[in-house]
């Protein structure tokens, strides 16, 4: 998971879209963007451009998406189990 992409310590003078692509290229599955989403379109465009240029692999992004879905499923199962046990 990447730290907040629009935090000054994360940006270090770069743009949020550039840092997002760098984080994905480094193997991050989750990107955290704490602003109101005003930069989301730019981030998505940068990711798409990085895939088109070969900087990011569509297959690796697909694997990342599968890991995210798997984690969400495990959390959902755990949450249901806790609720049924009264915890």
Automatic annotation (TrEMBL):
GO terms for biological process: carbohydrate metabolic process; peptidoglycan turnover. GO terms for molecular function: hydrolase activity, hydrolyzing O-glycosyl compounds. Signal peptide: none annotated. Keywords: Hydrolase. Belongs to the glycosyl hydrolase 3 family. This is Uncharacterized protein. It comes from Alloyangia mangrovi.
């Amino acid at each position: 998971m990447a730290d907040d992409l629009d935090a000054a310590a994360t940006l270090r003078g770069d743009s949020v879209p550039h840092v997002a692509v760098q984080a994905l290229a480094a193997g991050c599955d989750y990107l955290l963007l704490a602003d109101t989403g005003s930069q989301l379109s730019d981030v998505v465009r940068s990711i798409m451009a990085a895939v088109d240029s070969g900087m990011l692999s569509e297959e690796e992004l697909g694997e990342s998406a599968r890991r995210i879905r798997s984690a969400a499923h495990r959390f959902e199962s755990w949450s249901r189990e806790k609720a049924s046990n009264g915890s």
